[in-house]
Amino acid sequence: MDGIKFVLNSKEVCYTGSAADRLLDVLRDTYDMKSVKCGCKEGECGACAVLLDGVLVNSCCVAAGAVEGSEITTVEGFRETEQFKVLSNAFAGLSAVQCGFCIPGMVMAAQALLSANPHPTDDEIREGLSGNLCRCTGYNAIVNAVKNAAKEGEGLW
Amino acid sequence: MREICRSIKKKDHDPKIEGRSRYLADYNLTDSGREILCGKLLRSQYARARVKGVELPDMPDGYIYVDASDIPGDNNVNIVLDDTPVFARETVEYIGEPIGMIVGPDEKEVSRLISETKVDYEALEPMTDLRKADKAFFNYEFGHGDVEKAFAEADRVFEEEFTTGYQEQAYLEVQGMMAEPEDDGKMYVHGSLQCPYYVHGALARAMGTGPDGVHIYQDVTGGGFGGKEDYPSILGCQVAVAAKKANAPVRCYFDRREDMEFTPKRHPSLCRYKMAVKDGRVTAVDCDVIFDAGAYSTLSAVVLQRGIIAAPGIYDIPNVHVTGRALKTNTVPCGAYRGFGAPQTFFAVEMMMSHIAQALGEDILEFKAKHYVKQGDKTSTNGLYHFPVPIPAMVDEVDELSDLRRKHKEYSKPQSGRYRRGIGLSTYFHGAGFTGSGERDIIKAVAKLHKYPDGTVEVLASNSDIGQGVRTTFPKIVAHELNIPLEKVYYDHPDTARVPDSGPTVASRSLMTVGELLRRAAIKLRNIWVEGEEQEVEEHYKEPDFMIPFYLDRFEGDAYPTYAWGVNAIEVEVDTYTGVTNILGAYASFDVGTPVDYNIVMGQMEGGFLQGIGYASIEKMDYDKNGKIWNRSFTDYLIPTAVDVPELKVTLHVEEYPDGPYGAKGAGELPLVGAAPAFVAAVEQALGGAEKHPLHSAPFNAEDVISELNKEVK
């Protein structure tokens, strides 16, 4: 069958809609990945961030056609991992989740950061999360949660 | 700290971080068994015009147009006054005002139909200049002492004018509401909102059904900050009218640009202050506070009240005269935003006091300190500060965090070179809970606990968790009093069909006021607890005995039972070549009484403080002479990211409030209120002080620094 073949959370899928559709809409509407949030639809807020072959991207700025042959990870897939559990515990320990709308994107950003740099400094964490807006927390709790996760999850990344 | 302060895992942590929480946009199109129709608003292109007609394109089957003629009840959204329409009346009053709504199954098709609809306007002259605006929605005046005499006898008189801009709440989840007609003829309205019973009151009236014909549910809400206080009432009425006509569920949620441009924000302000000084002390303040209300009055009355009550700051000034007006302009109506009028006047009074100190050659910190109010002093409205005022101790705490006093002296010496530093201080309060007698006379909060035979207890209240954590802290209080595990107590999102009206989620009141009702209810339940039985208890709000009755007609009495206190210091380095201001440190001590969960309260303090820093520095939004807002995306309206500030250094100072649960008092708004004067004072000091560069406006961004420095060149 014609379509855009990619791996979504470890499962092979074939999207038969337009190659010009936004990945954000495809993930939410066709594959029901509702962890992927729409905060601005123009690449500014990071609420729709997912991993594309391990790299953090804003799915609102990716065309469906661009993911042919790639691997996409959203929180629906990531939440099954040990790394997620460590991050979630670290966020919980500092009550770093308030309204929650930025959080799935934020968690994917943390995962991208720790995968590339398992022992980040505070400044590197802030840089790594700087594409993800949070209006609730002032970022302290999130930055410290990622720092704690890196410590607790030593060896996982 | 007390046992209750110990942080626990938030009850909504797992579903939120796992992406399982369902926000309004996450309902699938057929979740309710029926197709959800998409609604989009037809908006005015003019700031002021008579609408002569609407010409629709050919409407495909299943697509309908809805406007004011379809409203079953009143075309008035029940807010404070009656002026806000559900859909436009004969005229439109601002760019973006909803004229009607097109609904149908396919979102893209609805958008096409909206773009092809032609509206016939007769343009009218709009008012888009606050300085010329003359229609006052609200006009207040109060004071005490003999201001005229104090000015006549003054050694010196200072007069200055201060302005502040819009601030957009910028919650990460945009506004959205949905209405579903139910089989029994009732209308079910739900969405992203703060105040279920406000929406309920508005719906009952617009739908003409009375209170039993509608019920309101709060979905998981991605932030509010005031922005979802009044607006969901308006959007809720619009989707309900459409759902009634379509006899199908209708959902409307905005895109970011639509949300930024057309939903309420913080009121821009223009404050004129005059102060008299005699023997080195401020003896009188006379100030005129103007808020830009926008096209409809919405919440401007109460926002203005809070603003003008705070106008003299936390200073003991014997003679006070305050006037305040909320003026109509043909721009988007302003509404509630964390701080609710107080950030504007605290900006003005803090800058004013700092400027006077500099003009008198006094140290700013010491000059402020000798004017601080203390316990037992009168408030601006002849009420009393009934409880200790911990400001001096809190200044010491901030000094310890920031080295404020030493840096302040160091940076006040003449600086040269490209990079220059400054540190600014602000000291302020936030009145806890509703202004005046609103809690006693209007809200009359009721909260319940329902115990099931298996021993689980449900909290029944109407306060919404919008991120601030009441789904965790309410059960925490109840479990604590009942001495049962926290897992046995839960608090679901409120549905007005099931919960009593414990009031709106506003005014930093939920934990202090409703939390206390729940604490008392839990004690009641504990005393009658019978194993295995279903039981219910109820508590009603009682005004604390010590309060001096407040009279709004003359602004007399205790406007608030108690106050949360804040001290902020912000340290900056200004690049005088680019104008960019780098924040080196942001420090604060906040007294919100006992934190009923330390992490949750610290999250409120840090998050609010950063919103305040944004308001002070980079969050600039304005409209052009046609009333069109320039900054309507995250590209044009910047909010702070994780790299825009270093770690915020916040400490809690605890003055327990006897009428709040375990000593807690209002918390949510306080941390935003003082950031602007601290930041702008810091920039002012870096630029050489008020003698060279007196600053009078917030936000103050890189462009403002450059234009201020250009004045020096002349």
What are the defining features of this structure?
heterodimer; A: alpha+beta; Ubiquitin-like (UB roll); five-stranded mixed β-sheet; 6 helices; globular; B: 714 residues; alpha+beta; Aldehyde Oxidoreductase, domain 3; Aldehyde Oxidoreductase, domain 4; 3 domains; 24 strands; 23% strand
General description of the model:
The complex is a heterodimer of chains A (157) and B (714). Chain A is α+β, with helices and mostly antiparallel strands. Chain A contains 6 helices and 5 strands. Chain A has 2 domains: 71 residues, Ubiquitin-like (UB roll) (Roll), CATH 3.10.20.30; 72 residues, [2Fe-2S]-binding domain (DNA polymerase, domain 1). Helices cover 37% and strands 13% of the residues of chain A. The termini of chain A are far apart. Chain B has 714 residues and is of the alpha+beta class. Chain B folds into 3 domains: 170 residues, Alpha-Beta Complex (Aldehyde Oxidoreductase, domain 3); 325 residues, Aldehyde oxidase/xanthine dehydrogenase, molybdopterin binding domain (Aldehyde Oxidoreductase, domain 4, 2-Layer Sandwich), CATH 3.30.365; 103 residues, Aldehyde oxidase/xanthine dehydrogenase, molybdopterin binding domain (Aldehyde Oxidoreductase, domain 4, 2-Layer Sandwich). Chain B is built from 18 helices and 24 strands. In chain B, helix 4 packs across helix 5 and helix 13 packs parallel to helix 14. The mean pLDDT of chain B is 97. The chains are: A alpha+beta (157), B alpha+beta (714). The interface between A and B is large, with 55 and 58 residues.
Secondary structure: elements and pairs:
The complex is a heterodimer of chains A (157) and B (714).
Chain A: E1 4-8, E2 11-15, H1 23-30, E3 49-52, E4 55-58, E5 71-73, H2 75-78, H3 82-93, H4 103-116, H5 122-128, H6 140-152
Helix pairs in contact in A: 3-6
Chain B: H1 13-17, E1 37-43, E2 49-55, E3 64-67, E4 91-92, E5 98-104, H2 107-116, E6 118-123, E7 136-144, H3 147-152, E8 156-164, E9 176-181, E10 187-191, H4 196-206, E11 214-218, H5 231-246, E12 250-253, H6 256-262, E13 269-278, E14 281-294, H7 300-309, E15 319-328, H8 342-359, H9 364-369, H10 391-402, H11 404-411, E16 419-431, H12 438-443, E17 446-451, E18 457-460, H13 470-482, E19 489-490, H14 510-528, E20 535-540, E21 563-575, E22 581-591, H15 598-617, E23 649-652, H16 670-673, H17 675-686, E24 697-698, H18 702-713
